[in-house]
Queue: 3 jobs
Job 1
Amino acid sequence: MLPFWIALQFLSSLPIRLPGMPTPQQLGRSLLFYPAVGVLFGLMLMGLNLLLTGAPLLLHAALLLSAWVLLSGALHLDGLADSADAWLGGFGDRERTLAIMKDPRSGPVAVVTLVVVLLLKFTAILALIDAHRSIGLLLAPVLGRAAMLGLFLNTPYVRSGGLGQALADHLPRPLGIKILIASLVGCVAVAGVAGGLAVLIATAGFFGLRRLMIQRLGGSTGDTAGALLELLEVLVLVTLALS
């Protein structure tokens, strides 16, 4: 179960302490547990949603969104911000785009992107709570993290060395494909029509964003993987709120 704890430590702010430095093989296998971490997040958010029953609606949604951000430690929001800055500032140039992603500073494009994404997430959560359709709180984190597994399965990792390279090089691909398919089927089995709609929209979003990564960078980075997760979560929530 060590790969699961590695995945949970990396993807969350929960106080996970590993017994030592993981091997590259253990890091690669941890990717297999990304959808499981999404399930855990979703169940925690649905549990909090139940505890907040009766709270003022706006406050209810704000607390859920805050818990969501805190659970992930804003890790993927950071990747989204870096990607937004790089995509505009890179002017279509691969090396310039990659260089901007490594800059820890955030420009106005990053700030605006984060505000828009969080605003959409907040209003979609608000709509789902009002419609008593909390299943979106489970589907979005599962599909977002399953998408990260899918990205490492079929997209080159363009930065040599580091954690991302270890994940890409040591991911057990046949098993990863089976887990990815099982995750998508599980969403449909649990949520029915809503699950099927979420899977379809997330799949379309995944391939659209992957295409942009291939065109600009020739593959993915840790930042673009985080951006993918955040954008797909928002896409799923907004789609379910509108359906």
Job 2
Amino acid sequence: MSELTDKLNETVKYIQNKCKEKPIIGIVLGSGLGNLASEIVIEKEIPYAEIPHFPVSTVVGHSGKLIFGTLNEVSVLAMAGRFHFYEGYTPAQVVYPIRAMKLLGIETLLLSNAAGSVNPHYKVGDLVVINDHISLFTHNPLIGINEDSLGLRFPDMSEPYDKKIIAAAKEIGEKYNYQLKEGVYMGVTGPTFETRAEYKLIKAVGGDVVGMSTVQETIAAVHAGIKVFAISIVTDLGIRETDDIITHEEVLLAAKEAEPKLTRLFKELVLVL
């Protein structure tokens, strides 16, 4: 048994001793999107700092706790706050909670994030369903000795985001007239926002939105056989005519304003998974 497997087993044992619930849906809440947690009827909250081998979130807008409860009467496990490569964590540490979720029984993962847009048809506040991603600018979390107990050495990534869940989300969007967009997410390391030339490059290679999360989590989830759905809230425009700058505070504000739509979408989506 590998060191990683030993650590995961210790983590899972600790969590299971704290909470006996066995949800099969996991949710990861991104920057400024933690208020969805207020819609969860909480059974148990566990701060990351108390969980063996768990990283601790250091980013404003990420509360840093594992939440067991029900969303729309469906049992879920939510991460209020995620981990990023730019915080100084290794890719393996970034995806450690996703692997722990797998061992806890999670079969479907719902990811959310705040993202910048390079698509001229998007505006701040839009919800963009991610149908693919470009991971060439991030470190792959599967580099190193493969954990055969988690997944294959060379997992196929031709369809990282589940088409059936995407279709269900679009139906929910039509129901509420949300006009969901659909596009490609470009993962970058951060923590700097991109230069204007970098935004143009991202658009040129096929990206629609860009952010500093999600890609590594998706890779680890697909490797572990978990179905993935991911959605971005557009919080800023990378390709713009104005000379203004982008700040993290503005990102959090834009995410907060669009969050009610995301909350409703997730509340309905868990009912059909």
Job 3
Amino acid sequence: MPQLHLIEGPVGAGKSTYAADLAIRIVGIHIALDEWFARLFSPDRPNADVMPWYMERKERLADHIWSHAQVLLKSGAKPILELGLVQQRSREAFYQRAQAAGIELQVHVLEASREVRRERVARRNIEKGPTFSMLVPEPIFELASDVWQSPDAAGIAQHRIEVIFTDA
């Protein structure tokens, strides 16, 4: 059965760094929705009503990445997806989608304290290093942190989710 890796966690938890390291370890292909989103859509971002604009494009892009991942799997590649599925229901829908397609899903959820994540994001905004894809202002960091839903114990057991704490 083909295997796909899904990397999730709150903003600043270290998802992109983890995914890049995983790609080296398993000889996989890291696909980060934020990176694609910034390149494809940021130049067209409106000044007002940003959330509806963002959500429509995020959903469309996530569907495209899903299709692309299936092509990669058929070629024998090992996709590592970082999709920003911050709410339980969106992750559950993705798990069901993978199961219906006969794809084994390995889920990695990264967690870190809000203070550590806030510091990482502030540093990334300044340094614009290898994991930088877009500026995350502090109000957006706080909003994104507030909407993140960690998996519960039942979901961790049911989906064999690997939870990785990255505070250190």
